[in-house]
Design goal:
single chain, alpha+beta, Beta-Lactamase, 5 domains, five-stranded antiparallel β-sheet, 29 helices, binds ligand C2E, binds magnesium ion, catalytic activity, Nucleotide_cyclase
């Protein structure tokens, strides 16, 4: 209501008053509308009415002033409130608005462009004014204006005294509140979906809140724990000092972080990484403790596994070199304190390399695992069985009472590893060589003990493998010698230090030399003539036998061809083959290629293999030999009787000849036992339709005995020592005559 209206209202009021006055005076000459100022003066000549009129006007003036100031005050208040206010009448025209409403709805409009105009038409914002709320039943709703959130309230003012019905629209901004609600919802989600367990206590450390991860990790639900203390989860794995230091840190720095083991509701232990933070209010009073827990079970398992792998061999799961040295060092310390002895068994598998090279690493790996299991099963719990690498194992035996205890144990292992191992379709024979050293007799520190056991092991290898040997100081010399030979051997081929000798194979019945065995000779400038018995095993161990063996083939085949060309007729040349050669990649193909290169036929070449080499992997051996025999090659078993082939195997092997080992010939005919063996071998060979050659014939009596039992083919010093090619030729000519 503005001033003019008030004024008009007051005039009406005054006229009513005058009407009243006139009525009182008993005159009613005029109707109120005829009453003007002039008439009033006439009617009220003495100014009674005028006086009261001016009083009334005065009053009216004051009222108007109060009204205006109240209005100003209200506008100021309206402008100051943090909400937009718009008053519209029942026609939707703006009656009143405040500052915020202006910026929201009537941007850049002047007051006269707003007041009295239809709000919907002049509103400058897209969303309009009050439309949504007026449609809603609640008279309050949320709306978005210019990307800001508002709560709109509509209040209808009923019409009074002819004034139209009005509506007051109040827009309160709730953007911040909405954002706060949104983040709260987000925190709630995070709280419940985080992988970390969260536990919240009040200032007295009583549990007030947990999340679902916490329940998953500990098994306890919030209902189980509410009002309880976190000590409910104690595992008993930490002493009171641990908890005391953790509370101390919490009080001093407001936080504690570390690993802790708690107990799951089901009783199991849970390793956790825990961070506890103290929350205080503005007065510094502790209001809460928040604990965040990460389950580190799998991390711990990985750590344990890694730790295991660092100290164990991944293939066999036995302790590795690192752990073994550690155990040995500790064992030595204990033994020194208690005046005890320690035994060290150094085990090297005998024919492992051949198997690994010929059958592949998968078979090799499985074999190593089986061997590891076998050795472990024979050992006591207190022994340490370790794999040092490759095919080397070592056993540490504490509290050894006598040397015999170690040798008996070694013997047990040798025997066990002699038994065949079944892997896939293969039956594998390996065997092992064991060197033994004893603390303190053979060394006072771990390095010396291992070195000396290794030396003793090589002694076994040198003397034919498959056995054990206790270290003695003399052995060190032979270890040095072995190393010297190996080093010298490395250059022997390129420096042409090898040559071949040939030993005639004699047929007594037909009185002729039917063949020659090629025997390798090494004239080393440093070591002189080295026996093949000495250097061949070393060449095998170091794989040098492959190039050396190839040279032997090439040279002996060449020599045989040149003899034949010059009229020296020999049925074949017999060449020794070691296991490493036979099972080496492409052995048969290489040999066939050499034969073709020199224009020979297969039946002019015989290979000599020992029984044990054949037995290593009988199936592979048979397939290689079959391949060679299909090209006509001859196969002889060398040193027959010294290995461990059985009759059943012998029948399966594709062979032509048995060479009876010199050890059975040596004591003929005086040793009854040897006589029986020789007789049995000859008749066995006959029944298997195999030829026999007796090796190492040194005298007439041996010859006669063998002749009598039906063996007619010989080799030995009695006829000729192995000689160079020239001397062999001469012998051939002499004997043929
Ligand atoms: P082996 O194949 O059994 O050869 C026979 C060995 O007996 C030869 O020794 C020979 O000299 C010797 N011998 C022959 N007749 C008599 C005899 O009447 N009395 C005595 N006491 N000994 C006799 P060698 O030449 O010292 O060879 C020893 C072993 O070295 C051979 O035994 C063979 O296994 C191996 N070997 C020799 N040459 C080669 C070769 O080129 N390659 C391979 N892989 N091994 C070879
Ligand atoms: Mg031979
Ligand atoms: Mg032989």
């Amino acid at each position: 209501m503005d001033y003019e209206e008030k004024y008009a209202e007051s005039i009406t009021y005054i006229r009513a008053k005058i009407d009243q006055l006139l009525k009182l005076m008993g005159t009613l000459p005029l109707r109120p509308e005829e009453l003007d100022d002039h008439t009033l003066i006439e009617l009220d000549p003495i100014g009674i009415v005028a006086q009261s009129f001016s009083q009334v006007l005065q009053h009216l003036h004051e009222t108007n002033e109060q009204l205006a100031s109240a209005k100003d005050e209200i506008r100021t208040i309206l402008d100051a409130i943090n909400a937009a206010v718009v008053v519209i009448d029942d026609q939707g025209r703006v009656e009143e608005y405040n500052r915020l409403a202006h910026t929201l709805f009537f941007k850049q409009l002047e007051s006269e462009q707003i007041i009295g105009h239809v709000a919907r038409e002049i509103c400058t914002c897209e969303e309009g004014i009050g439309e949504k709320v007026l449609k809603s039943l609640n008279l309050s709703c949320e709306t978005v204006i210019d990307g800001r959130d508002f709560m709109v309230n509509a209040t209808h003012l009923e019409s009074k005294g002819g004034a139209p019905r009005r509506t007051v629209l109040l827009y309160t901004e709730i953007t911040a509140q909405k954002q706060a609600e949104e983040s709260l919802r987000l925190y709630e989600k995070v709280f419940d979906n985080t992988a970390e367990g969260i536990l919240i206590t009040d200032g007295e450390a009583k549990i007030v809140e947990t999340n679902s991860a916490f329940t998953r990790i500990t098994g306890y639900s919030l209902a189980d724990l509410i009002g309880q203390r976190p000590s409910l989860l104690k595992s008993g794995r930490h002493d009171s000092e641990f908890y005391a230091s953790h509370w101390k840190s919490l009080e001093e720095s407001g936080t504690w972080k570390g690993e802790i083991i708690d107990r799951h509701k089901n009783g199991s232990l849970v390793p956790l990484l825990q961070t506890i933070s103290k929350i205080t209010d503005w007065q510094g009073q502790t209001t809460n403790y928040i604990s965040i827990l990460t389950d580190i079970t799998s991390l711990k398992e990985t750590q344990t596994r890694l730790d295991f792998l660092a100290h164990h061999d991944a293939l066999t799961e036995l302790p590795n070199r690192l752990l073994f040295h550690d155990r040995l060092d500790h064992a030595i310390e204990r033994a020194e304190r208690n005046d005890n002895k320690i035994g060290l068994l150094f085990i090297d598998l005998d024919r492992f390399k051949i198997i690994n090279d010929s059958l592949g690493h998968d078979v090799g790996d499985t074999l190593l695992q089986q061997v590891a299991r076998q050795i472990s099963s024979l050992s006591r719990k207190s022994d340490t069985v370790a794999r040092l690498g490759g095919d080397e194992f070592v056993i540490l035996i504490e509290n050894v009472t006598s040397d015999t205890a170690c040798t008996t144990f070694a013997n047990k292992i040798v025997h066990a590893l002699k038994q065949p191992f079944d892997i896939d379709e293969h039956q594998l024979h390996i065997g092992c060589s064991i060197g033994i050293s004893i603390y303190p007799d053979d060394g006072e520190d771990s390095v010396t003990l291992i070195k000396n056991a290794d030396t003793a092991m090589y002694k076994v290898k040198e003397s034919g493998r498959d056995g054990y040997h206790k270290y003695s100081s003399e052995l060190s010399e032979s270890a040095v010698e072995r190393l010297t030979i190996e080093n010298a051997l490395r250059h022997a081929l390129e420096r042409q230090e090898f040559h071949l000798h040939y030993q005639p194979l004699i047929d007594c019945e037909r009185q002729h030399v039917f063949g020659a065995e090629a025997l390798l000779r090494w004239q080393c400038p440093l070591l002189g003539n080295v026996s093949p018995m000495k250097f061949i095993p070393i060449a095998e161990e170091s794989s040098l036998i492959i190039p050396i063996g190839y040279w032997v083939f090439e040279e002996s085949i060449r020599q045989y061809k040149s003899w034949r060309d010059s009229g020296i007729e020999l049925d074949y040349i017999s060449i020794n083959v070691s296991g490493a050669q036979l099972y080496h990649f492409n052995f048969a193909e290489t040999l066939i290629a050499l034969m073709l290169k020199h224009g020979l036929t297969g039946d002019q070449i015989q290979i000599e293999i020992t029984e044990n080499i054949m037995m290593n992997d009988i199936d592979t051996c048979i397939s290689i030999l079959d391949q060679l025999r299909s090209e006509g090659f001859r196969v002889a078993i060398d040193d027959f009787g010294t290995g461990y082939s059985s009759l059943s195997y012998l029948r399966r092997l594709p062979i032509d000849m048995l060479k009876i080992d010199r050890s059975f010939v040596m004591h003929l005919p005086d040793n009854n036992n040897d006589c029986m063996i020789a007789t049995a071998v000859v008749s066995l060979a006959k029944s298997l339709k195999l030829e026999t050659v007796a090796e190492g014939i040194e005298d007439e009596r041996q010859l006669d005995f063998l002749h009598d039992i039906g063996c007619n083919r010989f080799q030995g010093f009695h006829f000729s020592r192995p000689t160079d090619a020239e001397a062999f030729e001469q012998y051939w000519h002499r004997y043929a005559r």
